[in-house]
């Protein structure tokens, strides 16, 4: 895309296309309802997920503070989407990237990170994300790189405060009544809650967590020791739990009935949004679609 400025053309860089994602209305799944159910399609970001926003924000702001400079090595524990986004941003901005993630992550995620030039280290599956986090901090203490720390870095939710929230507010013309988001690092829900509540304190912020025993990529209920430092539960009006089965089946329905291919965390958030749709009248419900479903084709989410 080229923009005209006087007599000259100004061409955009890849990072200029992070954000400004579509907000689309569901046609079939809400049924006969007085509500409007809207999905924010974050898979339309360049690296395919909502994590493009905080990845770019964390690197840009750390660089502006002088904490890092091009050529440095960055380290980050990730369950997938943040790692892919950071791998893209690091390649674009001239950084080396080491990503640590638990074994058992989808092959598409690992391959995508490596395609961007990142080094991927798989940690034991049984230690889950806490194991990846611990190993990342061990590597930083050994002087092998700098952790941006999506779990404690205020530049994570700030990205959503400055972009995602304003986009939702503008695209609904201030009519949004309920915001639904899966909770992983919690950056998405924290940043959007702060912005939307500043515009209208009556907007209800709904956080989605997994039921006990459910393993849903991108949705997590943290042990107290590992609870992200950016998380402030006072910014969430209601926590609703969803099962792995419901999250996956809703993701499959979303593809079949609405033509939107998304991952299980998006299915979990939508399942909660659809529950609200059955309980409310004349509401405008916005749910975050975190990423694209083609990232999960090898996992069996979409059976052959």
Automatic annotation (TrEMBL):
Catalyzed reactions: O-acetyl-L-serine + hydrogen sulfide = L-cysteine + acetate
Keyword Electron transport: no
Metabolic or biological pathway: Amino-acid biosynthesis; L-cysteine biosynthesis; L-cysteine from L-serine: step 2/2
Cofactor(s) needed for function: pyridoxal 5'-phosphate
GO function terms (MF aspect): cysteine synthase activity
Pfam family, one: PALP
EC number annotated for this UniProt entry: 2.5.1.47
Domain of life assignment: Bacteria
Entries under InterPro entries matching the protein: Cys_synth (IPR005856), Cys_Synth/Cystath_Beta-Synth (IPR050214), CysM (IPR005858), P-phosphate_BS (IPR001216), TrpB-like_PALP (IPR001926), TrpB-like_PALP_sf (IPR036052)
Keyword set includes Amino-acid biosynthesis: yes
Residues the entry annotates as binding pyridoxal 5'-phosphate: 81, 184-188, 265
Modified residues annotated as N6-(pyridoxal phosphate)lysine in this record: 51
Residue intervals of the Tryptophan synthase beta chain-like PALP domain: 15-291
Biological processes annotated in GO: cysteine biosynthetic process from serine
Entry keywords, A to Z: Amino-acid biosynthesis, Cysteine biosynthesis, Pyridoxal phosphate, Transferase
Family membership: Belongs to the cysteine synthase/cystathionine beta-synthase family.
This protein's name: Cysteine synthase
Organism, as annotated: Aquitalea palustris
Gene behind this protein: cysM
């Amino acid at each position: 895309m080229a923009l005209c400025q006087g007599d000259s053309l100004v061409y955009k860089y890849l990072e200029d296309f992070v954000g400004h994602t579509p907000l689309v209305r569901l046609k079939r799944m809400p049924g006969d309802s007085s509500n409007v159910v809207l999905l924010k399609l974050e898979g339309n970001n360049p690296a395919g997920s909502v994590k493009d926003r905080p990845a770019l924000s964390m690197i840009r702001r750390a660089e502006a503070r002088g904490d890092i400079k091009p050529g440095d090595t960055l380290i980050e524990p990730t369950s997938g989407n943040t790692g892919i986004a950071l791998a893209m941003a690091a390649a674009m901005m001239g950084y080396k990237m080491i990503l640590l993630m638990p074994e058992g992550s989808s092959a598409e995620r690992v391959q995508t990170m490596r395609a961007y030039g990142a080094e991927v280290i798989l940690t034991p599956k049984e230690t889950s994300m806490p194991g990846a986090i611990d190993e990342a901090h061990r590597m930083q203490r050994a002087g092998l790189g700098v952790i941006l720390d999506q779990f404690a870095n205020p530049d994570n939710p700030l990205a959503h405060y400055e972009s995602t929230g304003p986009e939702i507010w503008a695209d609904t013309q201030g009519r949004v009544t309920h915001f639904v988001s899966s909770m992983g690092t919690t950056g998405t829900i924290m940043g959007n809650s702060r912005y939307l509540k500043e515009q209208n304190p009556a907007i209800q912020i709904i956080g989605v967590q997994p039921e006990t025993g459910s393993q849903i990529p991108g949705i997590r209920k943290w042990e107290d020791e590992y609870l992200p430092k950016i998380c402030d539960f006072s910014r969430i009006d209601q926590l609703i739990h969803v099962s792995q089965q419901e999250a996956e089946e809703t993701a499959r329905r979303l593809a079949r009935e609405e033509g939107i291919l998304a991952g299980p965390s998006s299915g979990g958030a939508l399942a909660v949004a659809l529950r609200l749709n059955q309980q409310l009248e004349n509401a405008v419900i916005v749910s975050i679609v975190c990423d694209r479903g083609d990232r999960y084709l090898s996992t069996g989410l979409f059976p052959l």
